[in-house]
Amino acid sequence: MASAQAVSKLYKPVRELVLGATDEASGSDFGLPSHQREVAEWIDKVAKRDIGSVEGLKDLDTQLTPKTYIVDNYFTAADVAVYGALHPVFSELQPAQYYSLPALTRYFDHIQNYPSVRKSADALSPSFSLVPIDIENAPKLERKADPPKEKKKKTTATEASAAPPADSGKASAAAGPPSESSAPAESSKGQKKEKKDKKEKKEAGEGGDKGKKKGGESAKAAADDSGEPVPSMIDMRVGHIVEVAKHPDADSLYVEQIDFGEETGPRTVVSGLVNYIPIEQMRDRYLVGICNLKPANMRGVKSFAMVLAATSKDGKEGGVELIEPPPNSKPGDRVYFEGPEFENATPLPQLNPKKKIFETIQPGFTTLETREAAWINPATKSIHRIRTANGVCVAPNFVGASLS
């Protein structure tokens, strides 16, 4: 494994930190096969001391602005190595300095508090002692809305008559009705538009919030994603696994058919749970699914949702389990966050992957002492439990787990 080999090149303190925070035997913390090369490249950058210079912090801040983790959307050994390289720098920064690097500061604080990283760091104390980050008093970031697109100016009759004439052939074609030679071009444009419309409708039906759900409930009007990311933008629903099998080309992945109460039938969903939940325990399970992520190809199989799972506070070696909806839940039941600002809000039809809305919200997902699933607002520390109309969703066994 290339990324595991790269760890051996790290300088001793960071190498020990990485080895203590990851499970080299299972390889789960060294990335999916498609990501292992990128994980290795980041570790190699740390080994060459290309990470951690004050000059490079701004560039790293920019790279991390839309991301929760350094590679794709899950924790890997690359995050441990990068944290280890950044630690001596952040230990010297004053609040005004790290406030100027909001994405990098968020990332550093998240990784230093990641359970397996904290456990390894404490064992190596004081080399990687906890760096106090004053998030409470951080200046609020302004998230600007996308600028409105300029509408193409229509040419008035007066402007048209004032325009200089082109060659006679072109003038004739513009002034008169479409000739036989221009008809195919117009027809081609119409066919392309029709194909595009069909494709968008198909993707909306499979990966977005199509038409109607069971019971004839009409889809709500699209919400606006131009403001600051909030949890209610995420479309969560109760799902029921009606079929599950191992991915034909990936030993660590399941391919499930999950009923989310849609007239279009079950969605195909790919999840990396083979090493954590036996297939017998996946069959006929009720779960919470995130239904407005953009469909993604997972080793040749397109996935149209994501199951919400809890990872032990001790990391993946401590176990992973599905978040369970309350008893008597039905496929398609709405799952939402408690709080007047969230309970009646309409989720987005589809999350724009460029805006990283889920990735921005996800670090606040956790399970409480009661094992209830919740989102904790990082700014106000207010707790918003994840629930349906029938009750709160829970992790069967985990307290203080991270949810993803």
Automatic annotation (TrEMBL):
Keywords: RNA-binding, tRNA-binding. The keyword RNA-binding applies. Residues 157-188 have a biased composition (Low complexity). One of its GO terms (cellular component) is methionyl glutamyl tRNA synthetase complex. Residues 1-133 form the GST C-terminal domain. Residues 139-232 are annotated as: Disordered. Residues 190-199 have a biased composition (Basic residues). One of its GO terms (molecular function) is tRNA binding. SUPFAM superfamilies: GST C-terminal domain-like, Nucleic acid-binding proteins. Residues 139-149, 200-217 have a biased composition (Basic and acidic residues). Residues 230-336 form the TRNA-binding domain. CDD domains: GST_C_AaRS_like, tRNA_bind_EMAP-II_like. It comes from the Eukaryota. InterPro entries: Glutathione-S-Trfase_C-like (IPR010987), Glutathione-S-Trfase_C_sf (IPR036282), NA-bd_OB-fold (IPR012340), tRNA-bd_dom (IPR002547), Tyrosine-tRNA_ligase_regulator (IPR051270). This is Nucleic acid-binding protein. It comes from Gloeophyllum trabeum (strain ATCC 11539 / FP-39264 / Madison 617). The lineage of its organism: Eukaryota, Fungi, Dikarya, Basidiomycota, Agaricomycotina.
